[in-house]
Design a protein that fits this description.
about 120 residues, six-stranded mixed β-sheet, four-stranded antiparallel β-sheet, 10 strands, elongated
């Protein structure tokens, strides 16, 4: 009997620390002459210990990383142009967010990595 109320009380504490990375990229994009494709992500967290000014997002493709920049009109959204060679029809990528946490006696580095996503390139 005591277990159910206890679980209900702990649930908000478990949810409060969540960080999510949402892929905003279209799964399919037409091939373009430049070979660069826009990849976008949204970052959301309720973790109060994260220092927002230290967030550094990247797109990870294989062993290559591409820095992301904030989108102009939305907060907590990031974008990058990722090269895809003409001979490839798809890439698998992840988002990585590096940041610092407020800890005593000094901040500590941390990171979050998203699940893998696939971008398919099609001919027009």
């Amino acid at each position: 009997m005591i277990r159910k109320p206890l679980l209900l009380l702990l649930l908000p504490l478990l949810i409060a620390g969540c960080t999510t990375v949402t892929n905003l990229t279209s799964r399919n994009q037409p091939r373009n002459a430049e070979g660069l494709y826009l990849v976008e992500a949204a970052w959301a967290t309720r973790q109060a210990t994260i220092k927002p000014e230290t967030i550094k997002p990247y797109v990870v493709v294989g062993h290559e990383t591409y820095p992301m920049k904030p989108t102009p009109l939305a907060s907590n959204r990031w974008e990058a142009l990722v090269p895809v060679p003409n001979e490839k029809d798809s890439i698998v990528y992840r988002f990585k967010f590096d940041f610092e946490r407020r800890t005593v006696p000094e901040p500590l580095p941390d990171s979050v990595m998203s699940d893998a996503f696939r971008l398919d390139i099609f001919e027009r």
